[in-house]
Amino acid sequence: MKRIFITLLTIGCISFTNQVQAQQNENFDLQSFIENLFNLQDESLNYEDLYERLLLLYENPVNLNSASVDQLKGLYILSDPQIDSLKNYITENGKLLTVYELQLVPGFDYNTIEKLAPFVSVDSKEFIQDDRPLLQRILTERNNYFISRFEQTLEEKEGYTEPESPDDTRYAGGPAKHYLRYRVAKSGDFSFGFTTELDAGEKFTWDPATKRFGMDFWSIHGMVENYKGFRKIILGDYQLQFGQGLIFGAGFGVGKGSETINALERVNTGAKPYTSVIEGGFLRGAAVTYDVSEKMEVTAFASHLKQDASIRQDEESFEDYFSSIQTTGFHRTPTEIANKRQIAETVLGANLHFKMSEIAQFGMVLNSNSYSLPIQRSNQAYNQFEFSGKSNHNASIYTSFSLRQFRFFGEGGISKSGGTGGVFGFTSTLSPRVDFAMMFRSYARDFHALRGASFAEGSRNINESGIYWGFKYTLNSKFFLTAYYDTFQFPWLRFRVNTPSEGNDYLLRLNYFPQRSVKIYIQYRNKSREENTEDPEDGSTVVRAGTKQQVLANLEYRITPQLNLKSRVQFSDFRITDEFNDGYAFIQDAVYSTGKFVFSGRIAIFDTEGANNRQYAYERDVLYAFSIPAYSGEGIRNYLLIQYKLNRQIDIWARVARTSFYDRDEVGTGLETIDGDKRTDVKFQIRYKIR
Length: 691
Prior knowledge:
single chain, 9 helices
């Protein structure tokens, strides 16, 4: 009775209810949520996969009363103690009666509940099995939509001008970019869809000889879940995520960022559909996951994917080879068109996963990669231990388990070369206010995991070792501090680094939320890494440490439920030997909602020196598109985004962004060159929801 009374009293708290409902209305800003949660704006990352996964959860929330630990961890919101506390609360008190009851769960504060509310529910209907035919479930699913997008740069680029001589290269197609997408999906049941894209400069044409079939890129998938003992059956394009991503790492790897604890461990999601337009890194074929028993499942997968590469011929053996796979996805010029789909990659493998309990699991991964032609790297010293040849294979084992207040996780593997790699870590709540994490990684210089994406300073799991420490201190619901320190070494040469090298990276962030309408944070980051530079005395190449410092201050203030303002200042400087340069950006954002319209805008002023001081700042964009441009040089950037909900089924977006430079007379390089000091990009998108 006491619990029910408190729950009813909680529901009656109008201020809290209004705040949570505001998060769950149709104007919920998922893009801003991701930005605030991870704040990885110094990297050009692909947010699309995480966005889609969270949007699917938003459309089909996770039932808190039945959610697994992996499902809850996959939100990157809850800490391990919070997940344990929620599970214990349900065990002791029974199923939650309402989402608002989370206020009664020890360790849950308002900020946590506010982030969590859009993606969870306590809907009892989930326990009622839907036995209708698959086609009927698809036709009645509300998450069923088409998206069409058009975008273009208004200023003329050199690639679209008339050639001055017969030898001048120009783009084959026009300056517009086209995107079409269809998807119908329900978490835990099915997903079907396709995505197709024609980049600016590519020609809409049907020419099988050059591997062009109308739109330049097509991606199609079909998936059913929980069907006659099969956990998943996927045909078409898909990704794999096992263990800590050492052998297969798909989707969004958070890595180092302002969330220093909760996002460190990768979640074992297995196979999942691929819906992005990034023309590389995915698999094409079939993946099947079967439940052998309640505690064991096996996944088998096969893929055959043709990828872009420049074919060359060995001068001595006259055999064809390629040096690398091209992942830009552009097929605009004769050379780019000739390189399209020249290499066939075949991937075969399996995963055996044992789930001993909600807090203990382990598994193993086996796979082989083979190419239709051999990879032959350029004859440079840093390539000595890189993968070469036509085939590679890997094996790894992984585990994750909880022991008292510690959560351990890790994965170790070996490749055909004999090179080994491993990543192992733990998180812990040392006290109610202090969370701590540590992660060790070691990837040999000859460890070849061609599709791996585990925690690393570099872009690949090779030639690196390091130790990461993460820390979080929560004073109260208004103030908390996050920090990390990462030290790393590269035991062999790297591109533009002529000796083994090392470095370190640390971040400190103070978060202060004095009231629900005001959020403030200040962040400092210092990163030092050795690289090639010129000796000022004799002009020779030497390896020395370059250090970059970054300072960021952000104020977000919700003036009214309709108007939200955000002010941001970013500054950085870079120093190596006698070279010193810096850069800054002042940014003002505003979001205003009225009726069926949402208006978003920005004014940004920037002044930067050198490539190391480019300022990255997230910008709001149309649905399923992310914009994190690099502010470089001197100038001002503005954008305006308008979203209009015509009716229950149709949403329309229109966006215009302009950058005006004060330090140049032309923008871009090569065929992307614009004669002038301005660049204006427009974008229009419409989404039609079938239901």
